[in-house]
Amino acid sequence: MPDEQMAGAGSAPVPPGSAPGATPVPAAPPRPLDPIDRSIMRLLQADGRASIRSVAEQVHVSRANAYARINRLIDDGVIRGFTARVNHERAGQGASAYITLKIVQNSWRTVREQLRELPGAAHIALVSGDFDVLLLVHTPDNRTLRELVLTRLQAIPEVLSTRTLLVFEETDLLDQGPNQPPVTGPPPALGED
Which segments of the chain have a pLDDT < 70? Predict the structure, then answer.
């Protein structure tokens, strides 16, 4: 693994958009999470639209306490945002694949920026092992997937090789089961009941 790719345990991150060689900003140490914080995170992962009242009732704290804890989790960067979980097949993205890439040493940042631009790219990870990068993509069909791999990915000079693993079926571990109510209406703002 290239030195650029392997950050030491005590290294500080460089803020996004900073010039190369910029002085790193010291990262705040992670705050320990108690069982209530972890319960709040699980509830919000299952339903990011849950009201403060609902969260407070389920974790047995006051609404003010739940509100303060959620805001602290957001301010501390533990909760990075709220998103919708999408059924890609229903959204016209019926072909999914994990693609492994071997890349030129010390090219991670360059490759990552090019992968971000790919249509259908959903997740990019720098990993250890037999390959360097794991990429998850969703495309309308296998023809589009083939074009993405053979035309777009393999045209990136720093990509040495790829391997495509088709996804036949996915299970979202955050789903609560087949009887989960359908999503309707706009999401509530944080703090609404």
Answer: 1-27, 174-193
